[in-house]
């Protein structure tokens, strides 16, 4: 399959993620959208890696290592983020992020 | 003896230090001895120097003490110059000075111990400064003395410092003098620029190279003359001198009649080489002199304060001296300085004796008939009046006649004006004399009870000065008398560029006779009007009121100088400083704060907004990197 | 080595003083200031005979090409001497006073002394800048913590103002540094560089504004009256007596030789600003009712004259400026001493409420009269020598400027004499009739000032000869027209 297909899919995923983060107020949905963006990038990394390997650059498969890094970091981030969201829910009984703007005062 | 000349100013300085530092501990008698003794000792040394200088063939000698200012090619040594002119002034200053010091021991005796010592310290400091002024071998030294005497004058006018009006008079004197000093200082700078030196001998050597009528020469001469106007109370800087009468009377006699105010004449006479090459400036000097003489004499006609009359008379006489300088008759000016020192000091000390007897009263309308109680003061005062009026045979006659004769040779109009001034002088002096000493006593009963002749420490200086006022004129007999003009011969090595106007002998006799007859007429008019003076208390009107109010010159200066300066200063303070520059500076601070407040609003705490801004930013960067 | 000692003694004792309490802090700071004075006198003697022995160089930040390079020329030695003389006088004057947290108060004063001496000795631009700020920062804390009721906003303004100037200067220093071939901050490298005239023209302003704020020259002066008014008097003494000399010193050491063409281009503008400042400040001084502000404005006028004389840059004016830097320092410290005493006794600043002090405190009155007269440059006081030479030098440069500036000698007489009249003469009122005369310590300090006033007024030769070499250096560096 030509690499363009992957690119288009990943752009679509990324844009959905961005729009979700921008539009939604529910913290959990925003989180999922962030995951969506990360995975869009992961998909691209894998696709380009495959492309370069097919083109004869043996060492290019090292790029797939980054995907694991991203996954690990995302997992860590989710654990911290979910913890914050849980605390937030306990305090405010809501997961609406705009309520948190009260912090500024 | 000449190399010991530094002792002459040093002794009064020593007196100043002893009296100033020991004012708490010294008894009055010791203070008086130190104060008078130091000046008297200086007089003795001056006398010895004078006899040395008198020898024919004496050349000016410079005694350098140390380098004062040494910058590159500019050398200003702390040096004294002894020549005929400075030796003569030394004699006048220390001689009259000693008499006045002795007089003061009695006059100021009612002061507290500390005040008495302070007074003598100031007086000694004054003598020191004045001696520096006349002894200095360069213009900077002269300027040191020049400002020094101004300071002492300030301190002594404001001697009774609890009276705020006296302080104001002192301030006025100092500030007006400083206006003159500014001119003097600029003149010195111009000299440094042109000649690279301020030493008399070097400057006078280089002056002729500039050529007669050079603009720079005019500027130097004019600037120095501005200094002289301030110090010697000439129009338009004369108004401080009458106010200076706030000081103790002996101070008025010493500083504001005999010595300090003649510093301007000394300066111009000293720079005669320079002035003779600047004829326009000489004309200005002559005109300023005659205008001052007339203006001050006219004011003196209507003053009722005994010291004010004498003060205006001093201003007027100084005007005559400048007239003489302006006509090129330097010797006549110095001659008049000398005779004036005698008779004006005499008059002031006499008035002090009167004020002392009257318990501090200075208004002549409240006096009268004093000759009954104060015979010595009466006689000596009368001699002083006769001398200043110019009665033949007394000192004032000879010096004034010489000035008038020169004025006649210079310009007939100026002569006429000067003659009118001389007649006014005779009139107001005898008005003063008759109102004070003859008629009935008009003071309170208590004052009458206290009237007495003053003690010997006061009358002795009066008698000595009276004698000098009589005989002082014989050192400068007019040419027509056939006798040599001793003073002229004595001073000729210094006043090299003198060119007196020689008149035809018959003409000179005629002028002399004319002025004498007119003066005697004026005296008789004054006698007729005032010998039985009664104080009616009537207000003056018309021109008399204008004269009584001194032509409203003080008010005029207030309106055109003092007030605008204050308005300008307030405008600077409130208009420019506070609401201009400082507001601008604070405005920058306030602007930053305001801008910060506006930008802060972007930080609204909406996470969505932040992310949105971030995404927009990324897109913009993306677009830029793609298309640019 | 002496030069380093001059900086180290106040620096180290200053740091120690922070830990001390009460009398200990006072005693140590006094002791330290005397030690500095002794060293400064020795250094002064050496500066006259063998200035090269006072040079000290050590590696500092070799990566940047910056060295710890200190030394003393005539002017430096003179200003160090001024600093070293002033601090003991200040400490003696306030010895009887109690301040909160004396350890910190005296410690900060000593630190600023170290900074000041550093500024006057530094021959490395970066080092100069560091000391420049080191002198400033303690003063900021001193003003804001021990100052008057408006101290915080006023010191804030003062700090931001001077700091803004410093940053401009830093920019200029860094620019010149990058241009030097061997990337060096040393004074020799800076003076050897000589950038093109366009560069010099704008670089001039970076340096000039920094120095002009410090001096201060019109129209950069508005921080000064407020700060002088609000600071505790010992700090005002440091500020007006010594710290303003940093600006003048900076111009002579770092501006004239480094950017002679820039100076030549803007000379006239700088002089015009200075002359305007002289008249302007003198006029404002006339209508002041606050004693401290009056002295502040009189100081602006005096500094304006010094600045004008520096830019006239001829032999007489330069000698005059340097002599006057010393003498103005002494005189104004003397004035502040007396103000401090008056404040201490009466606790008022408004001159309208004073009067009659001469009756009850004659020594105080005499001291004030003498110092005031020195301040209006009466001959035979030290103020005369400098002003005479400066006016004369300015006159050689341009007679009209000199004539206008010299009007200030009349105005100075007006405001100083009015001040005397209001403060010490006249009848005493209920408040002033309680004025106690000078106490021993105060009398001692003021007597020293008065002795210096007369000695240098009559015999200025040692001072003139000391600064001779600097004048020669600066005049030679001046761009030949």
TrEMBL record, chain B:
Keyword Protein biosynthesis listed? The answer is no
* Protein's cellular compartments: Endomembrane system; Membrane
Q: What's the short name of a Pfam family annotated to this entry?
A: Proton_antipo_N
**Topological relation to the membrane, as annotated:** Multi-pass membrane protein
Q: Where are the transmembrane segments?
A: 30-50, 86-104, 116-137, 143-161, 213-230, 251-269, 275-297, 309-335, 341-358, 379-398, 413-434, 455-477, 509-526, 607-627
Question: What NCBIfam families does UniProt report for this protein, alphabetically?
Answer: NDH_I_L (TIGR01974), PRK06590.1 (NF005141)
Identification of the protein by name: NADH dehydrogenase subunit L
UniProtKB/TrEMBL annotation, chain C:
Has keyword Membrane?
yes
The lineage's top-level taxon is Bacteria
- Do you know which NCBIfam families this protein is assigned to? NDH_I_M (TIGR01972)
- Entry GO MF terms: NADH dehydrogenase (ubiquinone) activity; NADH dehydrogenase activity; ubiquinone binding
What residues form the membrane-spanning segments?
A: 75-96, 103-123, 129-146, 158-177, 202-223, 235-256, 262-287, 294-313, 325-343, 364-385, 397-420, 441-459
Q: Which UniProt keywords apply?
A: Membrane, Transmembrane, Transmembrane helix
Compartments in which it is found:
Endomembrane system; Membrane
Domain (NADH:quinone oxidoreductase/Mrp antiporter transmembrane) spans 122-408
UniProt similarity note: Belongs to the complex I subunit 4 family.
- A Pfam family: Proton_antipo_M
Q: Name one GO cellular component term.
A: endomembrane system
Give the GO biological process terms: ATP synthesis coupled electron transport; electron transport coupled proton transport
Question: Chief location of this protein?
Answer: membrane
What's the name of the protein? NADH-quinone oxidoreductase subunit M
């Amino acid at each position: 399959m030509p690499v363009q297909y992957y690119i288009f899919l990943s752009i679509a995923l990324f844009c959905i993620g961005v729009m979700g983060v921008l539009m939604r107020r529910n913290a959990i949905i925003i989180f999922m959208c962030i995951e969506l963006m990360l995975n869009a990038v992961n998909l691209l990394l894998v696709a380009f890696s495959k492309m370069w390997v097919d083109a004869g650059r043996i060492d290019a498969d090292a790029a797939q290592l980054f995907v694991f890094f991203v996954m690990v970091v995302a997992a860590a981030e989710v654990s911290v983020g979910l913890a914050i969201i849980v605390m937030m829910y306990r305090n405010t009984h809501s997961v609406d992020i705009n309520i948190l703007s009260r912090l500024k005062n | 003896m000449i190399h010991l000349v530094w002792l002459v100013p040093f002794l009064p300085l020593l007196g100043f230090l002893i009296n100033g530092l020991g004012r708490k501990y010294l008894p009055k008698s010791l203070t008086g001895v130190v104060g008078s003794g130091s000046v008297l000792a200086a007089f003795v040394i001056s006398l010895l120097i004078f006899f040395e200088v008198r020898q024919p063939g004496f050349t000016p000698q410079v005694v350098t003490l140390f380098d004062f200012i040494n910058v590159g090619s500019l050398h200003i040594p702390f040096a004294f110059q002894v020549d005929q002119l400075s030796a003569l002034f030394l004699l006048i200053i220390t001689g009259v000075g000693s008499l006045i010091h002795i007089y003061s021991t009695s006059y100021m005796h009612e002061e507290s111990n500390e005040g008495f010592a302070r007074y003598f310290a100031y007086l000694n400091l004054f003598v020191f400064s004045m001696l520096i002024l006349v002894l200095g071998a360069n213009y900077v030294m002269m300027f040191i003395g020049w400002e020094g005497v101004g300071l002492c004058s300030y301190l002594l006018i404001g001697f009774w410092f609890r009276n705020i009006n006296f302080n104001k008079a002192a301030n006025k004197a100092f500030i007006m003098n400083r206006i003159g000093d500014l001119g003097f200082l600029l003149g010195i700078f111009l000299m440094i620029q042109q000649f690279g030196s301020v030493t008399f001998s070097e400057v006078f050597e280089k002056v002729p190279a500039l050529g007669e009528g050079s603009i720079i020469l005019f500027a130097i001469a004019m600037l120095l003359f501005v200094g002289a106007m301030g110090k010697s109370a000439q129009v338009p800087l004369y108004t401080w001198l009458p106010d200076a009468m706030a000081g103790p009377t002996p101070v008025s006699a010493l500083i504001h009649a005999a010595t300090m105010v003649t510093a301007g004449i000394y300066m111009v006479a000293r720079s005669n080489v320079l002035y003779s090459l600047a004829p326009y400036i000489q004309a200005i000097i002559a005109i300023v002199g005659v205008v001052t003489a007339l203006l001050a004499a006219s004011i003196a006609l209507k003053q009722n304060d005994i010291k004010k009359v004498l003060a205006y008379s001093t201003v007027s006489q100084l005007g005559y001296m400048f007239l003489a300088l302006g006509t090129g008759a330097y010797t006549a000016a110095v001659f008049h300085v000398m005779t004036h020192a005698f008779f004006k000091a005499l008059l002031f000390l006499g008035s002090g004796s009167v004020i002392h007897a009257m318990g501090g009263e200075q208004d002549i309308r409240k006096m009268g008939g004093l000759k009954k109680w104060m015979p010595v003061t009466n006689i000596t005062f009368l001699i002083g009046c006769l001398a200043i009026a110019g009665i033949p045979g007394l000192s004032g006659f000879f010096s004034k006649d010489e000035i008038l004769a020169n004025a006649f040779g210079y310009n007939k109009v100026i002569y006429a004006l000067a003659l009118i001034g001389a007649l006014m002088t005779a009139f107001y002096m005898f008005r003063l004399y008759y109102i004070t000493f003859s008629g009935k006593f008009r003071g309170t009963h208590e004052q009458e009870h206290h009237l007495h002749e003053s003690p010997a420490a006061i009358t002795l200086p009066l008698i000595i000065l009276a004698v000098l006022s009589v005989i002082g004129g014989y050192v400068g007999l007019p040419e027509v008398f056939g006798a040599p003009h001793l003073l002229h011969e004595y001073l000729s090595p210094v006043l090299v560029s003198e060119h007196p106007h020689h008149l035809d002998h018959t003409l000179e006799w005629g002028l002399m006779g004319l002025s004498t007859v007119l003066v005697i007429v004026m005296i008789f008019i004054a006698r007729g009007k005032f010998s039985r003076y009664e104080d009616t208390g009537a207000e003056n009107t018309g021109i008399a009121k204008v004269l009584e109010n001194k032509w409203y010159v003080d008010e005029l200066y207030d309106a055109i100088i003092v007030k605008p300066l204050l308005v300008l200063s307030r405008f600077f303070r409130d208009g420019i400083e506070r609401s201009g520059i400082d507001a601008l500076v604070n405005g920058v601070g306030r602007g930053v704060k305001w801008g910060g407040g506006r930008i802060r609003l972007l930080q609204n705490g909406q996470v969505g907004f932040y992310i949105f801004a971030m995404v927009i930013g990324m897109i913009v960067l993306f677009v830029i990197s793609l298309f640019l | 080595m002496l030069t380093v000692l001059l900086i180290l003694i106040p620096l180290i004792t200053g740091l120690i003083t922070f830990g001390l309490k009460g009398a200990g802090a006072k005693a140590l700071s006094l002791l330290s200031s005397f030690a500095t004075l002794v060293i400064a006198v020795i250094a002064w003697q050496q500066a006259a005979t063998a200035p090269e022995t006072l040079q000290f160089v050590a590696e500092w930040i070799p990566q940047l090409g910056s060295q710890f390079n200190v030394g003393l020329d005539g002017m430096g030695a003179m200003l160090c001497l001024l600093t070293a003389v002033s601090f003991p006088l200040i400490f003696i004057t306030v010895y009887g006073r109690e301040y909160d947290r004396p350890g910190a108060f005296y410690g900060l004063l000593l630190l600023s002394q170290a900074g000041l001496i550093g500024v006057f000795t530094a021959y490395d631009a970066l080092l100069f800048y560091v000391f420049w700020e080191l002198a400033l920062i303690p003063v900021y804390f001193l003003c804001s913590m021990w100052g008057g009721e408006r101290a915080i906003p006023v010191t804030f303004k003062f700090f931001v103002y001077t700091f803004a100037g410093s940053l401009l200067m830093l920019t200029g220093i860094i620019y010149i540094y990058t241009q030097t071939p061997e990337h060096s901050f040393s004074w020799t490298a800076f003076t050897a560089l000589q950038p093109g005239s366009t560069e010099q023209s704008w670089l001039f302003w970076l340096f000039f504004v920094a120095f002009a704020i410090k001096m201060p020259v019109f129209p950069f002066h508005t921080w000064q009256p407020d700060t002088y008014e609000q600071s505790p008097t010992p700090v005002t003494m440091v500020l007006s007596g010594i710290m303003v000399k940093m600006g003048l010193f900076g111009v002579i050491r770092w501006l004239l030789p480094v950017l002679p063409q820039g100076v030549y281009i803007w000379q006239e503008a700088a002089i015009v600003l200075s002359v305007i400042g002289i008249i302007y400040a003198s006029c404002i001084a006339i209508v002041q009712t606050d004693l401290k502000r009056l002295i502040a404005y009189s100081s602006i006028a005096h500094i304006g004259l010094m600045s004008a004389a520096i830019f006239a840059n001829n032999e007489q004016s330069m000698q005059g400026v340097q002599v006057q830097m010393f003498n103005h320092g002494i005189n104004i410290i003397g004035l502040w001493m007396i103000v401090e005493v008056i404040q201490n006794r009466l606790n008022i600043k408004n001159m309208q409420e004073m009067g009659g002090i001469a009756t009850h405190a004659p020594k105080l009155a005499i001291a004030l009269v003498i110092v005031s007269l020195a301040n209006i440059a009466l001959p035979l006081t030290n103020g005369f020598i400098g002003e005479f030479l400066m006016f004369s030098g300015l006159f050689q440069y341009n007679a009209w400027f000199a004539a206008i500036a010299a009007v200030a000698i009349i105005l100075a007489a007006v405001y100083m004499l009015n001040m005397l009249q209001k403060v010490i003469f006249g009848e005493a009122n209920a408040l002033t009739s309680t004025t106690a005369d000078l106490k021993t310590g105060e009398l001692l300090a003021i007597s020293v000032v008065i002795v210096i006033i007369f000695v240098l007024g009559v015999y200025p030769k040692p001072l003139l000869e000391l600064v001779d070499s600097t004048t020669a250096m600066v005049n030679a560096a001046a761009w030949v027209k």
